[in-house]
Amino acid sequence: MAAITVSNLTKSFPTAERRAGGFFARLLPARHTHEVMVVRDLSFSIAAGERVAFIGPNGAGKSTTLKMLTGILEPTSGIAEVAGFVPWRQRRQLAYAIGIVFGQRSQLWHQLRVRQSFDLLGKLYGVEATTYALRLQRLVERFDIGGLLERRAAELSLGQRLRCEIAAALLHGPSLLLLDEPTIGLDVTAKAALRDHLNALSREDGTTVLLTSHDTGDIERICERAIVIDRGALLLDLPLEELRQRYLGPRAIVLETHEPQPAFAYPGVTILAAEPYRITLSVDTKTAPIEQVIAAALQRLPVRDLIVEDTPFEEVIKTIYRGEAHRRAHVAA
User: How far apart are CA 214 and CA 116, in angstroms?
Assistant: First the structure.
């Protein structure tokens, strides 16, 4: 069963232009000119339990799409189902099936203790007392927030608050979790911990995760698939590993050998550096699959250690957008 199904979703907003002229002309109603298309004929499907990144530059239409998927906005045309509901028609029912976390917005009451906020949310969602107690215990353990329950939300650090925010979004047992920039402003340690918690949550409970983030570390550590949009239209929809293989540049392999002066030749491979007992190779993965190069190196050289250096995912995303910009320029010409 699909957790999210989107078909030909489109959203446009009318723009208005003030009348030219003096003071009295500006008092007249603005003239409608045209529609600005923010989301264009967008279609995709997300299966239950998937962890998907929803990627795009600023202004790509990500936030508008999320607002339609949560029922805040109604599309101009097209259809969508989220957890079996049409969001803009069944927003109340949908609220019980999804959890939402925005990195810069809080659903905790700042002047209340965290436990009091949790209790209030449990009552608002009508969670049965025994179910609530068991679920809270599991979330406290999973997100390591036992020591935070009696503190006021206003006293928490950003990392502590976000762990509590995600726990709060899961108290009613949603099948789908929507995350918008969940690690924004966190330090490296807090980011790593939060990513690990989210991974464990999805794997153990089968929770579907839809993540928007400009932090490629979030995408790599949490998601298994990426939907890329630009100017409101679908650009790519691929498994993360396939996206990396298709768009990454050369990858580096560092070989430490028992041979004093190692040498290696293979189609699509160039030597970046050669040192005593060590050689660094640059592999054009479009010509030479990385696993074939490694197999050949192990066969030809007395290797004692091997390191494959991945291209940062941020570079993969930049390559995608550069390619799209080049394509548009070529079409315009």
Answer: 33
- CA gap 128, 139 in Å, rounded: 16
Both tokens of 206, joined, read 């089968």
Q: What's the maximum distance between 2 C-alpha atoms anywhere in the chain?
A: 87
Could you give the strand order of the β-sheet that contains 251-257, starting from the edge strand earlier in sequence?
A: 269-275, 278-283, 251-257, 303-309
Phi, psi (degrees; rounded to nearest 5) at 319: -65, -40
183-223 pLDDT per residue, tens:
877 777 888 888 888 888 888 888 999 999 888 888 888 89
- 3-class SS of residue 314: helix
E-strand spans in the chain? Answer: 2-17, 31-47, 51-55, 77-82, 98-102, 176-180, 208-212, 225-230, 233-239, 251-257, 269-275, 278-283, 303-309
Say how many Å lie between the first and final Cα of the chain, rounded: 44
pTM metric for this prediction: 0.76
